[in-house]
Design brief:
Chain lengths: 589, 240
Amino acid sequence: MARQDPKKEVVIVGLGWTGAIMGMELAEEGLEILALERGPDRRTVPEMKYPEMIDELSQGERHKMMQRPSQSTITIRRDLHETALPMRKWGSFLLGNGVGGSGVHWNGQNWRPQPVEMGLRSYVTDRWGAAIIPEDMTIGDYPVTYDNLEPFFDRFEYVAGISGIAGNLNGEIREGGNPFEGWRSRDYPMPALPVTYNGAKFAEAARAMGYHPFPRPGGNASTSYVNEYGMQMGACNFCGFCERYGCYQYSKSSPQTTILAALFRKPNFSYRTGAEVLRVEMAADGLTATGVTYFDEDTGEEVFQPADIVILAAYQIENVRLMLISGIGQPYDPATGKGVTGKNYGYQITGSTSMFFRDEHFNPFVGSGINGVCIDDFGMNAIDFGAEGFIGGAYISSAQTNGQPIRSMPLPENTPEWGAGWKSAIAEWYGHEMSISHHASVMSYRGHYCDLDPTYRDRHGRPLMRITFDWHPNELRLNAFLQEKIEALARTMQPDLMKSSYKDFDSRYDVRPYQTTHNTGGAIMSQTPEGGPLNRYLQAWDKHNVFVTGAGAFVQNTQYNPTGLVGGLAYWAADAIRRQYLRNPGPLV
Amino acid sequence: MTAPPQNPKPHFPLSHPGRRQFLRVSAASFAAAGLWPSTVAAQDMPPLKDYPRAWLTENEWVFVLAAVARLIPSDGEGPGAIEARVPVFIDRELAGDFGAATDWYMEGPHQPDAPPELGWQSPLSPADIYRAAIPLFDEWCVSRHGTAFADLDAAMQDEALTALEGGDVPLPPELRDFFDILLTNTKEGYFSDPIHGGNHGMAAWVHIGFPGARAHYREWVGRHNIPYPLGPVSISGERA
């Protein structure tokens, strides 16, 4: 029989970036808050300390920081006719686990979306007419504009401690930054990091082509920094163990380095680890939630935690699954296009070209999560969709994040995978390679969605979430366009050898190689209750005391890494709760 | 799980030319003679034959020694998988969480013949795949060449591994990833930190120029196109 714990005013599901933001913002209101985190506690010391943390086998290969698929995973199929099968071990993406969530193991690459991405359907329709939108493409306008969100992007960047160079300061284009970005009300809180040799070479080649290179913005501190909560960061030392690792020296933006210690000092905030929320419980009238039921790992029992406000702040996948399991929003049906929860699942498409320079030294182990130089000359607002025959864009970059040899061993075309030829090639080419890659948008489609798997269940007997997703010709055309641009740029650099790795027009989604942990949609925000399960304040249309943060809210994915928009939306929603909802609980729209 | 074996003596840098006088490694000859190379270098290491195995049986051990010796051979510059003690790594991994697929979702139903792009669908754990696949591969070697893999000469071993890699050795679908796991584990054992049993003396890191756990390069960010001069350190503080 379920235990029932004393009521809280707010219960937060998941203590990653958005759980920490919501916790802090609502704690400022004096509310009694409990955050429930499925995984273990994680602190810089002892859990992330040097040198144990920087063990490529344990973290990079065995994913010890991540959610274990044995706890819960997803099933995947590429179309409505395929049988979805479980992702039994991680590949294409890596879901976080424990306090800090994916905010612990990310690289820190932090971007804002472009203004045109927020109003994408209108932008495309106004410029080229609705006829260029493929029949099955379900893109829309976000029910919130870039201008609405600007103060909240700014807030997140100043809390998280982002390094970079503003390219557009209140409309004024500035040398050295990204001239294609949306306006910023002020510069980044920290200057950009210096760049390694690959970045300098790329910048020079890009400039010669007439492009506009700039250092990648993100959450690796370039200097010492103290944020509004008094949290301190130290300058990144380019250790070369960023993504998949916790930062051992307080340099990577994470809930741990920028929010949590300050939040834990609030007497009205508490959290539990080993507390996996199983479902949101509903009032008899179905109009509000009464709290959540979670599984307590310590006692092995189910616990009902009553609360006035429920905030789902887990990762996109678990948030959408909890909504489907709990009946928040009507489940989406791809056959009719009706229903909202699970709609518009999105991802990211990537590709890259390696360049080998026999006599040059890149020292690839000198890396940080954001280290690199980018161009946005082929971004959403710079491409003529009508002329090119696709809708989408990308930033192109030359990164150097790590030289960890198990996973980061690019070798020229036709190098044997093993034997004497492989053994001599690794010595010949390690450290003599740099790459250029693209990171591109993925639009929403009628047949790309999330629902509950009919067959596979987790250890609590709940259905796994099923993702139906494949590459669409629109993205494959974008990818081919970007390949041509990158290879042309790479050739000007005159490498000894080049090797390209891009999807071709027959490519289907392959869950095995790591791509990005940028899963979006399924809990999209919408102007109307028919368009998505959340309104513009991330409030569930049909359960006004349920708010859902994270990239599930993305109407379609942007061309950028999602965290900047995730953080901005969390502060935006927190502001609406603080200023409107607490005074007058009910639908905000 | 068996406690990791401790090296009785400090490591030495395998990259030192005077230390590289290994006999050409042929696992077949070890297996046949029950002997191991008797160079100075080899004597400094705890011999692989005395290694207290945690998972692999005698026959599996003989196979793994022979197979990794072809996947990363000893001849030429740099250590082979044998000098890097990759078999020790593989045995330890198979005895642990990885081998048992402890962290993976292993609930049925299973469709091991699903399209490969849908990822691991075998009902077997990696350790069970080694256990089931090695005898089948050896049987194939016997039927094709008259002898088990470990007793083939190096050229025939390479040919057999190529057939295995190319899917030309008939294995049931639940074992179809065997070569991939074996190769991945071999490279993991070669390149991972020595705390996991392989990459003995960090020789694989020396071979390619990876400084291991140094992990502090701020002053090197702006030193463009200059080779980094320092050798590796390991998590437990060894230097090479």
